[in-house]
Amino acid sequence: MKENAVRRANDPKRREKIIQATLEAVKTYGVHAVTHRKIAAIAQVPLGSMTYYFAGMDALLSEAFTLFTENMSRQYQDFFAQVTDAEGACQAITEMIYGSQVTTPDNMALMYQLYAYASDKPALKIVMQNWMQRSQNTLAQWFDAQTARALDGVYRGDDAAFCNGSNAAGT
């Protein structure tokens, strides 16, 4: 018998697997039909891992959607990496809207699930507002604040601003 034996997790990336599986479950089943059991099955982890790593479904969904919005923000900013003027920014926005690198079916499904879920979850509204603010800050390099909000609204869909509790004028 070993003294002072320390139990280590069998899978050090289990938490990250669960978060990724949560996003997959949301795409597959919709946010309101996601369960711990479905996520655990997708992640191929024991069901008990769900409550070991996360306080509950709201905490798990919040972390998963935070990861999603951070990834989307990075992709968004990458489109503007070589932009030097407003005309280039307009071109980048057009490419994002009509291209398939960022507006993939998976990303769009998650985006609309986030909008629906955030409509009655204050913590998720903050995640969404932070995401929108990061996008608008990127656009503010070339446009005034109101134009940046409007362009971001076109990219996301005008309804996103209203789900988020603000309008195109930023109030």
Structure commentary:
The protein is mostly helical. The chain has one domain: Tetracycline Repressor, domain 2, CATH 1.10.357. 67% of the residues lie in helices and 0% in strands. The chain has nine helices and no strands. The protein has helices spanning 14-29, 36-43, 48-53, 57-79, 86-98, 105-118, 122-139, 145-156, 159-163. The longest helix is centred in the middle third of the chain and has 23 residues, at 57-79. Pfam families: TetR_N. This is TetR family transcriptional regulator. GO terms for molecular function: DNA binding.
Provide a compact summary of the structure:
It comes from Salmonella enterica I. InterPro entries: Homeodomain-like_sf (IPR009057), HTH_TetR (IPR001647). With 171 residues, the chain is mainly α.
Describe the SSE topology.
Layout: H1 14-29, H2 36-43, H3 48-53, H4 57-79, H5 86-98, H6 105-118, H7 122-139, H8 145-156, H9 159-163
Helix pairs in contact: 1-2, 1-4, 4-7, 6-7, 7-8
Principal-axis shape equals elongated
What is the domain tally? 1
The second-level CATH architecture is Orthogonal Bundle
CATH class: Mainly Alpha
Comma- or semicolon-separated keywords:
Homeodomain-like_sf; TetR family transcriptional regulator; DNA binding; Tetracycline Repressor, domain 2; 171 residues; mainly alpha
